[in-house]
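Render this sequence as a predicted structure.
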Amino acid sequence: MKKLSLLCFLALGLHTFAQSVKGDELTYTYVKLPTNPVQPKPTAYMASVFAAYEAENQRLLAQFEADKAQAEADYQRDLADLPNKQKAADDKFEREMKAWNEKSTASKIIEKQVLNENNRPVKDYIPQPYRRSIAMPIMKTTYDYNSLASTYLFIDGLQKSAANALNYTVTLQGFEATTAKIISEVKKEVSRKDGVSTSIDVTYYHIEFTYRHPMSFRVSNAMNQEIYAAAPAELTEFKLYKGAATKTQPSMDVNAVVKSMEDKCLQENLKAINHMVNDRIGFERTNETFELYYVKSKNESHNDILDAYNAATLGFKMLGTNEAQGKAELDKAIIIWKKALEESEIDNKKARIDKDVTIAIYFNLLEAYFALRNTTEADVILQTMGRMDISNRDKKQREAYEQAYIDLKLRMAANGL
């Protein structure tokens, strides 16, 4: 989100202003407008998942079954032919023995002692038939595709229905992984005994492999006209899995590790695609985390700021469940904050609404206006803060809001707001 990376900077910056400025992290849900809304606005969608490799899976399976059937036929044929082969061997042995027995004793002695030949017949060995072992082919994982679609694919703001619906499909290309390897790495470690430090080489081991699961998606209208389609390049890039390092060689099942990453990669990629679709054409319910500020003073001179904080907290939390009531509570907080700003004296450190408190209120208002899509009021604050002498951290935070509002304005314009 736009402020998460700078949240810690803001907290540090405000707490250096004055100890009276306090802040709590708050997360709320708002509806993000699409960048390219479908016109006229649809009301329904249907989602589905397909695997491009299923045809190849079926071909491999069919070949496997055919090879097994052929192996069985060959075995049964050899088994049926076994008596004939055994009889033929018996008959041959009988003929050869008869011919050998008809030789004179002198001939046998000459063959054995003079010629060093032993021509006594030996019965042919007839091996027992055996079934050829057919290895199961390596196939890509088959899933419950209906369950995947219902779990990971949805378009916010639309109902799941077949009537005049958008068709949202994701095609899986299949998980790929390189052969897992056990990598060794020698590290220097220092041990201390009896006040003496000793450096030794210690070998660590970890499992390592790369993996990916390419996917593509397509969204079309009820007339099968394409609205949005892509094969995200980032899903084709191999990622590196590097297991935890241990001083002994890993004894875990490598196949189990690869399977775990396959499941994780599938889920992450489907979520990434669903975010892309919702960001472009859906009304995505988005979580936003920020720091909401109030002022706490010993003489309770800032109770109005605390009241605004409480109203805003309630308002932000209600946006995701009761938008109208949430906006009403935020409006209450905004009225209080704007009233307090009438007392703002940024050059007077003893003022009730000094520079520290003023900046805190400005950031609170910027978040509230963002949630309410009030870009006009936000522009006034951003311009005012742009003229103020504020810390570098606050400048970065202001710039983050400025970028967020640029994006918001573009989305509002695209949606006719």
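Summary. The chain is about 45% helix and 20% strand. Residues 54-101 form the longest helix (48 residues).
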